[in-house]
């Protein structure tokens, strides 16, 4: 028997999004999963369209803008992951942290902390 029987579930590889115990631990992983500039640009465009769809839906009282917002946000992001990053979006394993990461990265792109 090796030493692996002593490992706790929290000792999972850091490439597994489920291994992070806080968003602060998760965000550097999230950024590494968005290293391709084209993917970040698609996320930025998708997030901007989400905000525009939601604002338009509120302005015109159109609840059908919510599904359109989701389609824009996830569609642009997932396309970037599958086509440019060649990875699976973290939203499949850590949906809340991934959602939070989308908006923190969006802010970081707007403020110039990350290159667009």
Summary of the model, kept short:
It holds the Pfam family Mpo1-like. This protein is mainly alpha-helical and 116 residues long.
Main attributes?
4 helices, mainly alpha, single chain
Please provide a written account of the structure.
With 116 residues, the protein is mainly α. It has a domain of 75 residues. Helices cover 61% and strands 0% of the residues. The protein is built from four helices and no strands. Helix 1 crosses helix 4, helix 2 runs antiparallel to helix 3 and helix 2 packs across helix 4. It is globular and about 40 Å long. The N terminus is likely disordered. InterPro entries: Mpo1-like. It comes from Piscinibacter gummiphilus. Keywords: Membrane, Transmembrane, Transmembrane helix.
Structural class: mainly alpha
Q: How helical, in percent, are the residues?
A: 55-70%
Oligomeric form: single chain
Main pleated sheet: none
First-last Cα distance: 49 Å
How are helices and strands ordered from N to C?
HHHH
Pfam families: Mpo1-like
InterPro entries: Mpo1-like
Keywords: Membrane, Transmembrane, Transmembrane helix
Protein name: DUF962 family protein
């Amino acid at each position: 028997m090796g030493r692996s029987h002593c490992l706790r579930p929290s000792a999972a590889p850091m490439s597994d999004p489920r291994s992070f115990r806080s968003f602060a631990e998760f965000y550097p992983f999230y950024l590494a999963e968005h290293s391709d500039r084209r993917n970040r640009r698609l996320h930025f465009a998708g997030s901007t369209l989400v905000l525009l769809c939601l604002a338009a839906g509120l302005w015109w009282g159109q609840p059908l803008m919510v599904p359109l917002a989701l389609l824009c946000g996830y569609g642009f992001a997932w396309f970037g992951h599958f086509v440019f990053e060649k990875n699976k979006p973290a939203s499949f394993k850590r949906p809340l942290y991934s959602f939070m990461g989308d908006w923190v990265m969006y802010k970081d792109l707007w403020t110039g902390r990350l290159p667009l």
